Amino acid sequence: MKAAVQAFVGLALAALLLYWVFRDKDPRLLRAAIAQASWPGLVAAAVLNFAHNHVRVLRWRRLLAPVRASVPYRPMFAAIVLGYLTTWLVPGRIGELVRPALLTAKEGIPLGPSLGSVVSDRFLDGIAIVVLFFAGSLTATFASGSAALASQMRWASIALASVMAIGLVVLALFARQASRLDARLAGAPPPLRWLGRAALALAQGASALRTPSLWLPILGLSLVAWLMIAAGTWIGIRSAGVPIDFSASLVLLPLLAIGVALPTPAGAGGYHAAMQFGLTQLFGVDGTAAAGAGLLMHLAVMVPVLIVGPALLYTESLSLADLIRAARQIKGLGATGTP
């Protein structure tokens, strides 16, 4: 019943957002905008966007270095892509749980640090997005009348980056004091003991951030990954017939990230609405052209995962049901001592 409700809510939200995007568009003009797109450019955008997952693997491997040195590439890549696939196809956005659970099952890495590394990974994503957005907002050419909105977004980005940086620092400090804190939790009431040990287990996934020789490359890889996404987005939007500058694609990053994060199937509706809002409100792009760019770029983001994901399910001898069962392992985190 819970899954059915989540599926209904996701579909309803996607339908509402898609209605908002396309409610006032002339179908003939929209088809014309799509027809004049450069398909080789869109393929290049899709390849570049998907290729950023290679950088994600390199970053994740460094985050896990204090727990396990040189984790094999293939299971990490498979876990990342299958996490995306699960998020897009299964209600409840459990893909972020699938990724650490699969790596734990395949490589025997303790679940707590594995999940904690994914939490750190997402904090790093947020910081990289905000840094690139801020840099892009300083050089982008905004539409007349949108300067105030851009300024508000800039200040909001600074506040958000500060919160995420504090979160990473807290995780790293917890990891430093793990042994002492775990001993104190032994006599705590069961609920507090569960929460405390779960927090300590997660914190071990941020241990790499205590070492400059590790966190500097990790931060650099975070920026590279999102620069690749921004470049793919820029190429794709221009291939759809919207001549924006590269700095504009940096400004769009947080909007598109929020759009994809909405609980809709495969980001449908959320991604389109974010693209529509960003291009029209910030850069004065025609609404029909913006809607066409959103449609085509959503396909560029989605299709590679929908091709590679099922292939990985086959080669790894897995099913979607296996991925859901793997994600449920997370419920046991904190039941015992810190792994």
Q: Spans of 5+ residues with little confidence (pLDDT < 50)? A: 334-339
Main pleated-sheet profile: none
* Global Rg: 21 Å
Q: Average pLDDT value?
A: 86
> How helical, in percent, are the residues?
over 70%
Total number of distinct structural domains: 1
Based on Cα principal axes, name the global outline.
globular
DSSP strand (E) fraction? under 5%
The ordered string of helix (H) and strand (E) elements is HHHHHHHHHHHHHH
Tell me how many strands there are: 0
Helical segment count: 14
The computed structural class is: mainly alpha
The oligomeric state is single chain
User: What's the end-to-end separation, in Å?
Assistant: 34 Å
Explain what you see.
- The longest helix is centred in the middle third of the chain and has 30 residues, at 147-176.
- The chain has helices at 2-22, 27-35, 39-63, 73-89, 95-107, 111-139, 147-176, 178-185, 190-203, 212-239, 246-261, 270-283, 287-315, 320-327.
- α3 crosses α4.
- It is globular.
- It has 14 helices and no strands.
- The chain has 339 residues and is mostly helical.
Describe the secondary-structure layout.
Elements: H1 2-22, H2 27-35, H3 39-63, H4 73-89, H5 95-107, H6 111-139, H7 147-176, H8 178-185, H9 190-203, H10 212-239, H11 246-261, H12 270-283, H13 287-315, H14 320-327
